[in-house]
Amino acid sequence: MIKRVYKFGGASVKDADAVRNLKKILENEDRSDLMLVISAMGKTTNGIEKALKNFRDNDGHLPIGALQELMEYHEKIMLELFDEDTQHPVFETVTNLFLDLYLSLQETGYDYDYQYDQTISFGEMLSTTIISAYLNDNGIKNRLLDARDYIITDHDFRAANVDFDESRLRIEKLQREHDGTLYIVQGFIGASTKPVVTTTLGREGSDYTGAIFANLLDANELSVWKDVDGVRNADPKRFPKTEKIPHLSYSEATELTFYGASVLHPKTTKPLQNKNIPLKVRCFLDASLEPTVIDGSDEFISYVPSFIVKDNQMLVTIRPRDFSFMNEQNLGVLFAMLNELNIHANMIQTSALDLSICIDEDERKLRQLIASLEQSFIIRYNAGLQLFTIRHYENGIEKEFVKDKRVFVEQRSRSTLQLVIS
Ligand code: ASP
Ligand code: MG
After folding, report:
1. Which of 35, 44, 113, 134: disulfide with 40, CB 3.0–4.6 Å?
2. What is the chain's mean pLDDT, rounded?
């Protein structure tokens, strides 16, 4: 039986040394009840995004710079891992994956979101192909699975919704047939049925994949391996002094990640909470460090103030042209439209006449929103903003961070302070 799921993110497999380190971690583990979910190597997903942009901006004509970089990056890792043995079958497999990626990048006539998922998914196919082969050669026997056979979704490209019933059938079968082999599967990607096409779960979605497998396998644990020693009260890359939070409830972890704490994908907690499966955030740089544990126990946890910054935000203000109130009817219309366009409001505020929403910057979606509402609503927006959230704030604690900033919106609840600032 598979009882534990380990998810390794891009940073944990970003070069040959990192992959060797992954092997070391696995050597010290009982692998007979373990399954691995792995992301694309390093910044590969960003690289494919860039390549896709190049191709679409040029109608598919040979702007191969970004693609070339990705090929060289993976080749360098493979040369190191397989001792320069280019006769190793993995080289041919990877070459073929790059050929398919190249063909897929050329199909610029397709809808952007569709083409995005068809191309972006190669990042995880490449990483898992290379890592599975390397581990098999080095004493960690494993079998590579294709996530598209297990994570079944609808057709909402770039943010596909998981069909848990269909996925359950497949993953339960996988569990029944498990014979102690270490399975390796891609994070982030899935597939729709009828027709069968590749979909993705949203950027940084591999954590979510781990949680879906943990849920449907009835596992005892999901561990997410990071380059930090657990969840901290602020991003150490942004704040000089941060504190580790040893224990979090599912609800607190959900709040933090929803507001933008990048340590986990916000969708990760629900499948775990639903089956009461603990989530451990562990450090791949030193596996002996105590993880942060996220579980169902809300009691006895006291929280320090946590600081979360979301960049590239836009504040959109929407007002009815006929000067009617921003009442429930108007709100109903507007939220239905946001839902249809898959625009997620990170913060919402209303006044007599206006609805203000803070959303991630996305020029295409903004244009779609304006086009759909223009007839009845006036839409204004400010771009280049930050959404700054403090959970468990103390009065005045924000002063230091906002002193040279202009505050566009401020919201306080008993537990949370949010500011949209420039
Ligand atoms: N590789 C994907 C991304 O970078 C998924 C993940 O890393 O979780 O968004
Ligand atoms: Mg990642």
Report:
1. 44
2. 94
Over residues 58-90, the pLDDT tens digits come to 865 566 789 999 999 999 999 999 999 999 999
- Which amino acid, residue 201? L
Which residues, in sequence order, are bridge partners of residue 411? 418
CA–CA dist 81, 15 (Å, integer): 9
Interhelix angle for 16-27 vs 122-137, to 10°? 60
Ligand 1 pocket, residue 45 CB under 6 Å: yes
Name the residue with tokens 């098999």.
136
Between strands 292-295 and 377-391, the pairing is: unpaired
Q: Check if 39 has its Cβ closer than 6 Å to any atom of ligand 1.
A: yes
Question: Could you tell me if the CB of 210 is within 6 A of ligand 1?
Answer: no
Are 44 and 70 in contact, with CB atoms under 8 Å apart?
yes
Q: How much distance in Å is there from the Cα of 9 to the middle of ligand 2?
A: 5
Categorize the per-residue pLDDT at 250 as very low, low, confident or very high, splitting at 50, 70 and 90: very high
The model's pTM: 0.91
**CA torsion, points 220, 121, 155, 176, in degrees to nearest 10?**
-30
